[in-house]
Amino acid sequence: MTSLLLRPRDPRVRLAASGLLVAAASVLSLVAGVNPFAGGHAEAVPLSGTPGLLVASDGLMVVAAVVAGGPILASAVRALAVKVVSIDLLVSTATVGAIVIGEYWEAAAVTFLFALGHWLEAATVSRTRSALAELVAVAPQTAVVVREGTQVEVAATAVAHDEIVLVKNGAKVPVDGVVVAGVGALDEASITGESIPVEKAAGDRVYAGTVSAGGFLQVRATGIGADTTLARIIHRVEEAQDAKARTQTLTESFAAWYTPAVILLAVVAGLVTGDVVLALTLLVIGCPGALVVSIPVAVVAGIGRGARDGILIKGGEHLERSARISAVALDKTGTLTEGAPHVTDVVVLAADLTRRDVLAWAARAEAGSGHPLARPILDAAAAEGVPVDALAEHTEPVVGRGVVATVDGRRVAVGNLRLLDGVERDDRAAAEVERLSSAGRTPVVVALDSRVVGVVGVADTVRADARAMVRRLRAAGVTRVVMLTGDTRGVARAVAAQVGIDDVRAELLPEDKLEVVARLQADGHTVAMVGDGVNDAPALATADIGVAMGAAGTAVAVETADIALMKDDLLSLPRAVDLARRTVAVMRQNIAIALVTVVLLVVGVVAGGVTMAVGMLVHEASVLVVIANAVRLLRRRADDDRPAAPHVAAGRRWEVSEAVQ
Question: Among residues 162, 236, 352, 549, which is most buried (max CB within 10 A)?
Answer without folding.
Answer: 549
